[in-house]
Specification:
The chain is an alpha/beta fold and 313 residues long. It is 48% helix and 12% strand. It has an eight-stranded mixed β-sheet, sandwiched between helices. The chain is globular, with a radius of gyration of 20 Å. The N terminus is likely disordered.
Length: 313
């Protein structure tokens, strides 16, 4: 059974993957909605508005988060203007393409939706149930989950064939990759349109089977988790662990610094998915990782994680 599904999905992926240059699949997409105005959601919306020149509506139940998100988006635009990448005119055009709403019931009709809320399966399923009950049946619903089963999320939608995984990397405006993950129910048309939209947004895509962690986090998170275990066991200081991996393996940043930038709560959530779904003890979250999250030390966003960030407090 597994082999049959793998062959079916691989065959479908190969034929569709070759069609990434066929931008016509995304020509009908003019309006997208991003659910969640956190750092990931804002990054996704910014790239959609600036690079793909799409109209973008952000949905977030917190007015404060919407305001904070838009402020962050504008800071990114201003920074790029200072670097000479864009002009003030582009900044104005991008901001003119953006609207907000505080609930799914208030959202405008969208051709494509990208969900970017917290890494919680039941919360995502609730959102997808609401989206499919609100939007036209042809609307594609993508999730930015970095580890949760697309098939499971899709089962909460009335048209699961329109649901797909679209995992952007953080920070979205800088990182070129998007992992595309079809669920068991995902249609060929949904897959092709998603690949074409990612290309329109200036991204390179890779394809993963719908397994816990997909490609990136199946490899990355155990590496980060092991670094935290090494720290907890006193094998080395945090600085020496990071320096060893930076200079010894030519990584741009050490695993502990990277964990702080990702968010220790996000790292923990992904490790729990890997451990629970795969059942292998090698994916058991580090005890120290759980302690940091329990203490509210989540990394850069909270002002303290494995390292301290006074300016963020």
């Amino acid at each position: 059974m597994v082999a049959t599904l793998l062959i079916r999905n691989t065959s479908r992926a190969s034929s569709s993957y070759l069609k990434r240059s066929m931008s016509s699949s995304a020509d009908g997409i003019k309006n997208i909605c991003v659910v969640g105005a956190g750092q990931m959601g804002i990054g996704i919306g910014l790239v959609a508005a600036r690079v793909a020149k799409l109209n973008v509506q952000f949905i977030d139940s917190s007015p404060a988060q919407l305001s904070k998100g838009l402020e962050f988006l504008d800071k990114l635009l201003v920074k790029d203007i200072a670097k000479g990448k864009y002009t003030e005119e582009v900044r104005s055009e991008v901001k003119a393409r953006i609207t907000t709403a505080s609930s799914i019931s208030q959202m405008a009709t969208a051709d494509f939706v990208i969900e970017a809320i917290s890494e919680n399966a039941e919360l995502k399923r609730k959102v997808f149930g609401e989206l499919s009950a609100t939007l036209p049946q042809e609307t594609i619903l993508a999730t930015n989950t970095s580890s949760i089963s697309i098939t499971k999320i899709a089962s909460a939608a009335s048209r699961p064939e329109n649901v797909i995984g679209m995992h952007f990397m953080n920070p979205v405006p800088v990182m070129k990759l998007v992992e595309v993950i079809p669920g068991l129910q995902t249609s060929n048309q949904t897959l092709e349109t998603t690949l074409a939209l990612a290309q329109k947004m200036g991204k390179t895509t890779t394809m993963s089977q719908d397994v816990p962690g997909f490609i990136a986090n199946r490899l990355l998170m155990p590496y980060i988790n092991e670094a935290i275990i090494a720290l907890g066991e006193g094998i080395a200081t945090k600085e020496d662990i990071d320096t060893t991996m930076k200079l010894g393996t030519n990584n741009p940043m050490g695993p502990l610094t990277l964990a702080d930038f990702i968010g220790l709560d996000t790292c923990l959530a992904i490790m729990k998915v890997l451990h629970n779904e795969l059942g292998d003890s090698k994916y058991r979250p580090a005890v120290l990782l759980q302690k940091y999250v329990d203490a509210g030390w989540l990394g850069v966003k909270s002002g303290r994680g494995i390292y301290e960030y006074p300016s963020k407090k």
